[in-house]
């Protein structure tokens, strides 16, 4: 993809960092469909660990809204490389926020459910106590705190979880592949969350950015996940159903069966009250979104794995 969508001399309404990733691509598509001018900066075009580069990008393009989709997302690797992850997930947003403070831009920063302990029994409110249990969660929380501290009037943190889409590797595409390779699958049934289509989240970011500019959505933390909830086991059963194969091929198991360096939250369900108050409304139910997304996901799989 081209790093810059607009001519360098043309003012951009929106600037998207991490534009080459799954969510970044969907944000760009949502902006284009809405007729919003944008500048797309992938990680080769903008290194968030370079303070001067961040400053130059904001000064050059002078966007009204910055959407930060850039992140270190290798959850397990962060356990042994926390300093590297922090430079991207913590220091990077801090630099963006400082540049936005100087240029007057709104910043929409995408974060994660991993900032919570994952031991709740009811949906986490936007102002719930944060207590990350992993290095990844700690680095993402550092980014959140920097944005909200530096931009109290123009900083927006949007936490999401269980994200899937066509523009990159994710759980749904992995399950589609495994359905064709294995007779049965063991999938954990003791972690609950909200599968969220990246295209739906992109639309929400567009709505929130517009509301921020209009002054109808106060700055602060918001939750960008689908409505409803399920387990990874329930999610996979629905994927198999949409594939037209027997969901009983998916067998429940526990997290103990899959030892990983970073602990996974047992409960990742997020509440959406601040979206309602802002008049934006939460995203639709995860099943409805998955049903609509599925043909596109299947086409992406078949393109990469021709018969």
What features would you describe in this structure?
There is one protein chain. The chain is α/β, with parallel strands linked by helices and 307 residues long. It has a domain at 14-168 and 195-227 and 268-284: 3-Layer(aba) Sandwich (Rossmann fold). It has helices spanning 22-33, 51-61, 82-103, 135-150, 171-179, 198-214, 232-243, 273-277, 286-304, and strands at residues 14-17, 38-41, 65-68, 106-112, 155-160, 163-164, 185-188, 192-193, 196-197, 220-223, 230-231, 250-253. Helix 1 packs across helix 6, helix 3 (82-103) packs parallel to helix 4 and helix 5 crosses helix 7. It is globular. Mean pLDDT is 95; it is low at 1-11.
In one word, what is the shape? Answer: globular
CATH fold annotation of the domain at 14-168 and 195-227 and 268-284: Rossmann fold
State the distance separating the first and last CA atoms: 27 Å
* Tally of DSSP β-strands: 12
CATH superfamily of the domain at 14-168 and 195-227 and 268-284: NAD(P)-binding Rossmann-like Domain
- How many helices? 9
Please bin the fraction of helical residues.
Answer: 40-55%
Rg over CA atoms, rounded to whole Å, is 19 Å
Which secondary-structure class do the elements indicate? Answer: alpha/beta
Low-confidence stretches: 1-11
- Which sequence of SSEs, written as H and E, runs from N to C? EHEHEHEHEEHEEEHEEHEHH
CATH class category name of the domain at 14-168 and 195-227 and 268-284: Alpha Beta
């Amino acid at each position: 993809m081209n790093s810059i969508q607009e001519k360098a001399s043309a003012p951009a309404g929106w600037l998207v960092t991490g534009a080459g990733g799954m969510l970044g691509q969907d944000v760009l598509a949502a902006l284009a469909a809405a007729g919003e001018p944008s500048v797309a900066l992938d990680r080769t075009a903008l290194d968030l660990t370079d303070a001067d580069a961040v400053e130059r990008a904001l000064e050059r393009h002078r966007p009204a809204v910055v959407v930060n989709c850039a992140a270190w997302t290798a959850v397990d690797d962060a356990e042994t490389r926390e300093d590297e992850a922090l430079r991207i997930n913590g220091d990077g947003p801090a630099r963006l926020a400082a540049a936005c403070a100087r240029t007057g831009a709104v910043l929409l920063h995408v974060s994660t459910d991993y900032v919570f302990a994952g031991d709740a029994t009811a949906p986490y409110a936007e102002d719930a106590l944060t207590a990350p249990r992993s290095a990844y969660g700690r680095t993402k929380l550092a980014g959140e705190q920097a944005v909200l501290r530096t931009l109290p009037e123009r900083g927006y943190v949007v936490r999401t979880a269980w994200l899937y889409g066509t523009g990159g590797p994710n759980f749904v595409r992995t399950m589609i592949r495994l359905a064709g390779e294995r007779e049965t699958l063991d999938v954990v049934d003791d972690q609950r969350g909200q599968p969220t289509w990246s295209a739906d989240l992109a639309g929400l970011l567009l709505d929130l950015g517009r509301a921020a500019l209009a002054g109808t959505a106060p700055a602060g933390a918001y939750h960008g996940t689908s409505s409803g909830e399920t387990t990874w086991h329930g999610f996979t059963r629905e994927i198999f159903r949409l594939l037209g194969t027997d969901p009983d091929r998916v067998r429940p198991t526990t997290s103990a069966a899959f030892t990983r360096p970073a602990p996974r939250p047992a409960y990742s369900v997020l509440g959406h009250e601040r979206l309602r108050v802002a008049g934006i409304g939460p995203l639709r139910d995860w099943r409805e979104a998955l049903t609509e997304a599925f043909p596109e996901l299947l086409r992406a799989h078949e393109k990469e794995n021709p018969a």
